[in-house]
Amino acid sequence: MPNIVNGSVEGYLDAGFLQTSYEYDYPTVEDRELDLRPGKSKLHRKLVDEVMKKARASHSVISNRFDSWREIDKLLVTYIRPDEEEQKVKETDDRRPTSIVFPYSYAVLETLLTYLSDVFLDDPIFRYEGSSPEDTVGAILLELVVQKHCQKHKVGLALHTQWRDALAYGIGPVSPAWDVRTGTRRVLRQSGGFSGFAERLMGREPVAEEEIAVLFEGNVLRNIDPYNLLPDPSVSAHNIQKGEFIGWIEQTNLTGLLRQEATDEDYFNCRYLKHLKGRRVDLGRNQSSRDIKHQISPDAMSGNLDLLEVVHMYIDLIPRDWELGSSEYPEKWLFSVAAGEVIVQARPLNLNHGMFPVSIAAPDYDGYSIAPLSKLETQYGLQHTLNFLFNSHVANVRKAINDMLIVDPYMINIKDLQNPGPGKLIRMRRPAWGRGVRDAVMQLNITDITQQNISSGSWIINWMNNIVGIDESLMGSMRQGGPERLTKAEFQGTRQSAMTRLAHMAKVISMQSMQDIGYFFGSHTQQLMSEDTYVNTIGEWEDRLKKEFGLAEQQDSRMKVRPEDLLIDFDVEIKDGAHPSTKSSDFWMAMITLLMENPEMNQIFDIRRIFKHAARQNGAKNVSEFYRVQPDEQVMREVEKGNLIPQQQQTAGGPSVSM
Fold first, then answer.
1. What are 618's strand-pairing partners?
2. What is the SS3 assignment for 159?
3. Any idea what DSSP says for residue 573?
């Protein structure tokens, strides 16, 4: 049953919360400052109740999936809690095997993640193109700036986590945001009012000083734990932009919020949280089983009084109904409620794209569910059966390797028999002396009824591969068995079919999430970038940018990009989801050979562009680095550097070249 949060503050807040008043500058709407004082403002109480009501409604729906998700967590951590009998086995000899999770679902997950990483994580991760010819150069610069942000903030790791969540739980939510890092940096300043050259002539050295400055600004991608997601239950996973709200729960602490308030002007009221007495709404309590193998309790941190749960929620609201303005048309707002009681952030989004900055990948969506089944969930029954077959066989072998004897205690000294060892002497009892030892002990026959379990497990693994759409070659192994050796045609055909199914999954993720994230990153960069930045132009766009901006005169390939250079209309290129190795490189290489041998065809097709395309299909990223420098171009570069001069401008003793 989901946790229910009431609106009462009794028993949760001390007297100081209601008696203390801190000075804050609250958000202003239509020249009116909002009254958001906790415990004193009716508007504050109303907003808290509205946000928490939506959070409870969403949590009551999404929590129905937790039991299934926890079973997937147990599969991925390959852990089964031992029963009483197995506990005794371990206590006797910890080297003896007990029940385990056969980690085939984990192997499937790693194979799928490897495919997605190969498809999407090549630089640049997000490709942009101008909507019109005059936007082409701006789109190139936007692509370079966004790629710099992706490298700085390790966006590839966040994407990897999103895909892992989507494959394990059915949904992988992320929140693109704009991060501004401020700090202290040391700069050199002149000690007087003269230029640097004049200062050096006068023997004065520059003075190192410290200043508060923006160290870096750019796009960042934050993962949202599916257990902490608060979606609008009325819309499907791929239609979250049509919902009324979407939010998530963040586990943080008092010092973290106070630090956030000190550096971010959008945060307020955090000092009121000092008066909370361990207030927890329990919506964000760790519900997963990811740490079950380490036996870490979900409430291990509950004794920490500074532990706080913050509900972040984007809501599409009518300002007049919420007493946040006079407009009767919807606006998107962001609210953050700490400990279910104190608003620490409330502001209109005012983002140019007009969307919730949240994206969800759900490759197995059905078009209707907010939390569809995942690929690993569809295999859970087979994985569970595979575990049973393997563990029952291990248990039977463990039982069989222990001698099961039928003993006549009248003839055998039982204590000697219970402690066997090399060279051990087992004594007969006096009544058996002289009668022989043949009938004193008999080995009980053991029949292994689980000897076919391993072969049955292989059959189950084969069906698990068929359901997901992978084969042995994708997992780094070759086909085992079969009437004949593996042929080239069989290998290529099977692999191509598997790749096609995986490409379908990647294409869905590209349309659902990658396209939206790329659009968010581009739009945020255009709207929120405030300072000039430098980008590296080495690569496929180098020649184009050199022609546009004269970069040939520079010693390196870095270029300054101003915010106004990015104000263009752009489109995000959707990746087709196909792995580079599946594209017909053999066809293109045969085409190049045909063109070289046929002059008439060579006049119709551009062999240079075809070769560049074939090289990219085979993984070459910067084909332009291998271009041969043309003599005329090389001469012009030397002239620009001053190493060569035209013949008519030749000076005594200097090098010359005829132009």
1. none
2. helix
3. P
Q: Which residues contact 55 (CB under 8 A, 6 or more apart)?
A: 5, 230, 247, 249, 283, 311, 313, 337
SS3 of 74-98: the string is HHHCCCCCCCHHHHHHHHHCCCCCC
Q: What is the pLDDT of residues 29-57, one digit of tens each?
A: 988 999 999 988 999 999 999 999 999 99
Q: What is the three-class DSSP state of 1?
A: coil
Q: Which of these, 228, 472, 504, lies nearest to 375 by C-alpha position?
A: 504
Distances (CA, A) of 326 to 24, 34, 37, 113: 24, 13, 21, 49
Distance of CA 71 to the CA centre of its chain: 21
In this predicted structure, the answer to whether residue 657 has a pLDDT above a threshold of 50 is: no
- Each residue's pLDDT tens digit, 88-110: 777 777 777 777 888 889 989 99
Q: Extract the tokens encoding 586.
A: 């053999």
Q: Per-residue pLDDT for 169 more than 90?
A: yes
pLDDT at 308: 85
Instruction: Summarize pLDDT for 213-235 with one digit per residue, the tens.
Output: 778 899 999 999 999 999 999 99
What is the number of helices (H) and of strands (E) in the chain?
Answer: 20, 16
Between CA 265 and CA 26 the distance in angstroms is 10
Beta carbons within 8 Å of 290's beta carbon, 6+ residues apart: 73, 76, 77
More confident residue, 390 or 305: 390
pLDDT tens, position by position, 570-601: 999 888 777 666 555 666 677 777 777 787 77
User: In angstroms, rounded to a whole number, what is the distance separating the alpha carbons of residues 119 and 506?
Assistant: 8
pTM > 0.85: yes or no: no
| C-beta pairs of 581-589 under 8 Å, 24+ apart in sequence | 581/499, 582/496, 582/499, 582/500, 582/503, 583/617, 584/617, 585/614, 585/617, 585/618, 588/613, 588/614, 588/617, 589/614
Q: SS3 of 281, please?
A: coil
Instruction: Report the pLDDT value the prediction gives residue 527, as an integer from 0 to 100.
Output: 95
d(C-alpha 411, C-alpha 477), whole Å? 57
CB 70 within 8 A of CB 48: no
338 residue type, one letter: A
Two tokens, residue 254:
């008092």
Does position 413 have pLDDT exceeding 70, yes or no?
Answer: yes
Q: What confidence tens digit (pLDDT) does each residue in 315-365 have?
A: 999 999 999 999 999 999 999 999 899 999 999 999 999 999 999 999 999
The residue whose two tokens read 């001698």 is 403
Report the alpha-carbon distance of residue 525 to residue 332 in Å, rounded: 20
Alpha carbon of 183 to those of 186, 207, 257, 478: distances in Å?
A: 10, 19, 18, 54
Residue 562 to residues 141, 187, 531, 571, Cα–Cα distance (Å): 10, 22, 7, 20
The secondary structure of 24-71, three-state, reads: CCCCEECCEECCCCCCCCHHHHHHHHHHHHHHHHHHHHHHHHHHHHHH
Q: Where do the DSSP E strands lie in 95-150?
A: 128-130
In angstroms, the CA 57 to CA 48 distance is 14
Let me know: does 120 contact 159? Beta carbons within 8 Å.
yes
Tally of residues, the chain: 659
Would you say residue 480 has pLDDT above 70? no
Averaged pLDDT for residues 257-286:
82
The helix (run of H) or strand (run of E) holding residue 377 is: helix 375-378
